[in-house]
Amino acid sequence: MAAVASASSISSAPWWQRALPHVLAVMFFALLACVYFSPIMFDGKTLAQHDITQFQGGAHEAQQYAKAMGKEALWTNSMFSGMPTYLVSLHFPGDWSGYLQKVMTLGLPAVVANLFLALLCGYILLVALGVRPLVAVAGAVALGFSSYNLAILAAGHNTKSLALAYAPLVLGGILVTYRRDKWLGAALFAVALTLNIHVNHLQITYYLLLLVAIFAVIELASAVRAGRLPDFAKRTALLGLGAVLAVGVSSGRLYTTAEYSKYSNRGPSELKTPAPAAPGEAPAPKTEDEGSGVDRDYAFQYSYGIGETITLLIPNFYGGASSMPLGSDSNLGRAGLPAEYLNGMPTYWGQQTYTAGPVYMGAVVCFLFILGLFVVEKRTRYWLLAGTILSILLAWGKNFETFNYLIFDLLPGYNKFRAVSMALVIAQLAMPILGALALSRIFRARAAAAPVAPVLPGTKPALAPEVAALLPKLLYAGAITAGICLLAYVASFSFDFAAPIDGDLTKQGFTPQLLTALRADRADLLRNDVWRGLLFIGAALGVLYFYLRGKLPLMPAALVMVALVLLDLWGVDKRYLGENKFQRETIAEEFQPSPADQQILRDNDLNYRVLNLSNPFNEAQTSYFHKSIGGYHGAKLRRYQDLIERQISPQMQQIFAQNKPDAAPVLNMLNARYFITPPSEKQPQQVILNPGALGNAWFVSTIRPVKSPDEEMTALNTLNPGVEAVVDVNKFPELKATSFEAAGSTIALTSYSPNELQYRFNATHPGVVVFSEVYYADGWQAYIDGKPAPHFRADYVLRAMQVPAGAHTIDFKFEPKSYSVGNAVSLASSIALLLALVGAGVYVARRKTAPADRTDVAPIA
User: How many domains does the chain have?
Assistant: First the structure.
């Protein structure tokens, strides 16, 4: 076969000829994304994404305000009685990176664009490393179609998906900077990190930086050994400058997020005593974590089982998802279970309380990853192997507590995150990259090999030494990967396939025969995937073996490898994001007001709250139409979470037990005017008017001083919020008096918007007003008759202020400095990044040499 063209001959080819393979690759990725999401592209359907639906509910008030007023709503009352919109729905006009994202996604719809971006960024990474376009396509498919990517889209975790999509681009910039062209690499890194941070999923960015840290340590060690430390420092400084630009572009979002994190439930409660136990339950233990992160048990709630790691190779080893469809020909179907129940059976029998599906890397990718451990350049091999191992250890969470509890306590910032099983995204990046580099090594070896001797008639040509050395390594990788599959198959005959949920099934009427059939189905799912994996491993091994032996040309071999990677992952992905996940109904059509909503909406008062008694703190349907006591968000205010746990939830139970809607003083002070009851078989949702709701603001006659958050919370148990207020005087020492004359004083809300509230009051004497609005120190400013006036926190979460006698106007305006300052920095950084990109473009246009400024290291691919 013809030798590979030299770099000089390639660079002398016409530009269109050099660009054509990349254009075809991009078109192929767009086609793949459109075909996978064909119900969206061609049938007019939408993807039923639970979290996106909830997001639309919670963001509706802010979005409507921005649309009507032409400016952002920085606060919303639609969820949890009020919270900043920083992590709900907020646009920073100084951040221009969103325009770049629109260009890169070619105008494709959401989720289709996510998959396309994952493929595109994976391809750019591998091409930047010198991988052939077809091999880069195979690697991009492996990165883009990893099962976790599609499973999180099914759940609605779009920002997580975008952060993962941009991660290969970040790695590409770093690798090009250190191993090839420092200027182009730094420019690529700055853009990639900007886009990654822009989508605002900091946990994914954190895991990406862990992988980068491992690379930096290995690269530093190599630089020291080779005497290249000054060069390493220069390249690192360039990357540091790119990181500063990237952080600067998103500084508005990062600044507001950092500010909010101090007050959110991602930090510890100020309360030191445990919450009282419900009747019949043991008291909750006092948390050991007094740091600044989430509770350890909360963080490790979703930990990947140690045995479940094998799902990287065998997806249905533990039964797949918590709810999987089974056919009529399944064991359960043949046992007589009605077809309507077969659509969602609990086939999963692992340790997690719930899973939407396993993390599957692909049998072909796992085989190539093992091969990469034999054939890829050492520094790259060690880096990606170390990242994969760390990823698995972190994902085990509480199942490997000796290691993970230490990491949780010591690694800076790590205790801000939960769902540690997400750490497998590091392996999701490392394994396909190493696999693609291994594939590139195989294809390059034979293409570059020269004949070792003239071939005599009637004899077979001798293999080049490099090719001959690769053949046993190829067979080792195949034997190891296939051997793991066969061991899993043999071991499966010793499993009982019992799951924790089986006891509940028995209580619900599952007979012993049906339970036996379900466990038989779990066994079949495992064993079928073993044979499936062996088939793909054998096919990939055969293609590469015959290629190295000279029996298969390069182009067909590369095309078959692309097809094998794609078919392997596509088939498993469709189990978790298949046709049944799409619907005709749009998100807007999902938010149709119920009769209960319509009844409440007849109330034209400016501001009141609604409590949906049906799972109120895990739904945002109510938030779409009303200002809700509840909501759906992973980072609500910490003090409000305390109030939910210790006051609101118990008082909800009192409402049910006593059938007295006004027997809930904390709900009254939150101005919960309406309760929506859960629907039942006997009656639909009902609306209950709460006669005890205190309204938007009221004068109190007594201040009950306390000296700690615990005393503050305890005082709420006996508080009559209409006449007295609880104030922590250690935090608000300026409050001197404790009694006031409130008789005859009146106050009313006269104007409402999310960012600004105006009240008119007439006080017979100087007094204290309590507002049914959530206190948030870093942003809300109070004014009396246009002049700044102090306010303080009362009743654990509410705003209050001392007011003078007479008729006056009070304005509350949400004016956080973090937004204005952060947005200004974002704008300046966006301009600087744009200038840097223009400079990089000029550099590329003028450069006439090959794209490398390093000659002291071997090429990566």
Answer: 3
Q: Looking at 660, 689, 718, which one is the last position of a domain?
A: 689
How far apart CA 802 and CA 490 sit, in angstroms, is: 76
* Interior angle at CA 271, CA 270 and CA 274, nearest 5: 145
Buried b (16+ CB within 10 A) or exposed e, 376-412: bbebbbbbbbbbbebbbbbbbbbbbeeebeebbeeee
pTM: 0.87
Pairwise CA distance, residues 550 & 547, whole Å: 5
For 446-481, the pLDDT digits (tens) are: 766 555 445 456 556 677 888 889 999 999 999 999
In a domain, 261, yes or no: no
The tens digit of pLDDT for each residue in 637-673 reads: 999 999 999 999 998 887 776 666 667 899 999 999 9
Last residue of a domain, one of 549, 582, 615: 582
Q: What are phi and psi of 288, to 5 degrees?
A: -80, -20
CA dihedral 294, 295, 296, 300 (to 10 degrees): -70
User: What is the Cα–Cα distance from 561 to 747, expressed in whole angstroms?
Assistant: 74
My answer on whether 673 and 710 are in the same domain is no
Q: What are φ and ψ of residue 321, in 5° steps?
A: -100, 170
Note the maximum CA span of the chain: 116
Cβ-proximal residues to 696 (8 Å cutoff; 6+ apart), any chain? 606, 607, 608, 671, 747, 748, 749, 759, 771, 772, 773
What is the C-alpha to C-alpha distance for residues 297 and 263, in angstroms, rounded to an integer?
A: 20
Range of the domain at 528: 293-451+462-582
Helix, strand, or coil here: 121?
helix
Bridge partner residues of 320 (DSSP):
none
